């Protein structure tokens, strides 16, 4: 038996490099190449280009989904073509295991794995809503990694075997670039005495930047030196700018767009990190903020409480409206010893418990265990109907979208 195992990573996502793409890139970087050879198949041109430039085999294809959110919604021929492509990739590259990075490729790769009789692991980076759990066939995956316990609950409540679920938190990598450290306050013409909050993420409704802006408005008279730096871009950019203008906060809210050196911004003299997320599967950027030594304010939602403990490694607020955010900011601003304590504790926890090395080792151990098994779990097509249990039991179902 050959020593190195060939792993086919199948990634579905938008044409950018963000959360789940970064997790995959970091896994490639730290994967033990004496044990594993990575191969990538993706619909993301950005990810394909990035990986190809690092001498990793990558194939770019268009991925069509049955019952997806965009047209065509019933491209059976396209689905069949993806099955054939998957079979060819596996046979041509002598693949030993399939790692599906996001839920969407389950729709064809579960069948491919079954036909080839090789193990398949699906890694979920978000909580999929009921329609997607059914249409993508998540219950047909023989093994699932969830980046937080929170996003495993719907699947387990519907009957997915708990012994086939692995909770492996994302690994956080200190990714400080070699460029000169930023001085954020000087860059934005702020005073050293100003208190600067930073938030990072796509400017979309789910990230809740509008709630942070509203909170800053409510605090402006009591805290005249409070500022917010917004790092990121997205479909709500113009809408958020209009909100800032309407609230006369142009001198307090600073949009700096997408940044390739986010770690430098977070370690560049800002005073705290804040998340306004309405939902959050894990909160990768919170870990990055912790490595920058920043005190963290975040909602008590999704996977965040699995590594942010209230008044120990951060301040957690009730995820409802703006008032809890206002109170959390006030608590932090009024207590300098707490600021130092939270920043120190968060750094210590993330730098020891959420390292990329621990994350990679856990995933590699799972690979070896599944490859060593003499047979793959038997899956029935009826398993794909398990999400109907959520309808029967009236279980509320929230979550993300494809990818």
Automatic annotation (TrEMBL):
GO MF terms on file? glycosyltransferase activity
User: Which residue numbers delimit the Glycosyl transferase family domain?
Assistant: 185-347
Query: Does the keyword Zinc belong to this entry?
Result: no
Q: Which Gene3D superfamilies match?
A: Glycogen Phosphorylase B
Q: CDD domains of this UniProt entry?
A: GT4_GT28_WabH-like
Boundaries of every Glycosyltransferase subfamily 4-like N-terminal domain copy? 19-175
What are the UniProt keywords, alphabetically?
Glycosyltransferase, Transferase
Instruction: Give the enzyme's EC designation.
Output: 2.4.-.-
What PANTHER family does the database record attribute to this sequence?
SULFOQUINOVOSYL TRANSFERASE SQD2 (PTHR45947:SF3)
Q: What is this protein called?
A: Glycosyltransferase
- Organism of origin is Vibrio cortegadensis
Lineage of producing organism: Bacteria, Pseudomonadati, Pseudomonadota, Gammaproteobacteria, Vibrionales
């Amino acid at each position: 038996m050959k020593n190195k195992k060939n792993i086919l990573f199948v990634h579905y996502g938008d044409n950018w490099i963000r959360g789940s793409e970064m997790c995959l890139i970091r896994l490639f970087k730290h994967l033990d190449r004496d044990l594993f050879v990575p191969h990538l198949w993706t619909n993301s041109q950005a990810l394909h280009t990035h990986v190809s430039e690092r001498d990793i085999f990558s194939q770019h294809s268009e991925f069509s989904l049955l019952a997806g959110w965009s047209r065509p919604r019933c491209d059976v021929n396209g689905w069949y073509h993806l099955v054939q492509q998957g079979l060819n990739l596996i046979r041509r590259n002598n693949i030993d295991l399939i790692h599906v990075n996001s839920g969407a490729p389950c729709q064809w790769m579960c069948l491919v794995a079954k036909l080839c009789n090789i193990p398949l692991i699906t890694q979920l980076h978000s909580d999929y809503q009921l329609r997607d759990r059914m249409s993508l066939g998540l219950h047909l995956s023989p093994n699932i990694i969830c980046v937080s316990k929170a996003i495993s609950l719907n699947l387990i409540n519907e009957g997915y075997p708990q012994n086939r679920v692995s909770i492996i938190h994302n690994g956080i990598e200190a990714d400080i670039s070699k460029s000169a450290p930023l001085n954020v306050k000087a860059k934005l013409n702020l005073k050293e005495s100003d208190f600067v909050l930073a938030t990072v993420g796509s400017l979309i409704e789910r990230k809740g930047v509008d709630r942070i802006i509203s909170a800053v408005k409510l605090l402006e008279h009591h805290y005249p030196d409070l500022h917010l730096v917004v790092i990121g871009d997205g479909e709500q950019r113009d809408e958020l700018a209009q909100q800032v203008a309407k609230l006369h906060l142009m001198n307090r809210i600073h949009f700096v767009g997408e940044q390739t050196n986010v770690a430098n911004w977070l370690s560049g003299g800002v005073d705290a990190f804040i998340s306004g997320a309405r939902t959050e599967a894990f909160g990768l950027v919170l870990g990055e903020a912790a490595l920058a030594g920043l005190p963290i304010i975040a909602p008590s939602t999704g996977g965040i409480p699995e590594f942010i403990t209230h008044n120990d490694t951060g301040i957690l607020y009730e995820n409802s409206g703006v008032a809890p955010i206002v109170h959390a900011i006030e608590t932090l601003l009024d207590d300098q010893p707490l600021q130092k304590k939270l920043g120190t504790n968060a750094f210590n926890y993330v730098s020891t418990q959420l390292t990329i090395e621990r994350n990679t080792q856990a995933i590699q151990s799972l690979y070896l265990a599944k490859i060593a098994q003499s047979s793959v779990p038997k899956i029935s097509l009826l398993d794909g109907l398990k999400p109907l249990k959520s309808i029967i039991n009236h279980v509320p179902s929230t979550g993300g979208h494809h990818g």
